[in-house]
Amino acid sequence: MNVILKGTIMKINETQTIGEKGFTKRSLILQTLDKYPQELNIEFIKDKCDLLNNLAEGEQIAISTNILGRKWTNPEGVDMWFNSLQGWNIELLIKQPEPQPEPAQEPDQAPDDLPF
Known about the structure:
- By secondary structure, this protein is mainly beta.
- It has a single domain, classed as CATH 2.40.50.140.
- Helices cover 0% and strands 53% of the residues.
- It has no helices and six strands.
- Strands 1-3-4-6-5 form a five-stranded mixed beta barrel.
């Protein structure tokens, strides 16, 4: 199932390498723009990790995601289901503003007791 999620980047995590084969994944936390915002962990795998390289916290983005679900049976034989969000495309909506330099301060006026 494909879903587009829009929101603000709260955190971008470092790329992780898993296992001997070098499987890579990276995630970000997206706060949705809904009336009741949700903070969602969205994973990017393999070459899609690079999509996060030029993004910054505070930027608003739209992420195309796949919703994935899987069943796992624990050692006691109890079935459990897990869901994950896997991103595959990002569109920048609002870029984080660049910090503006502080305006130059006027030097204090010279004291009146100068000898010249």
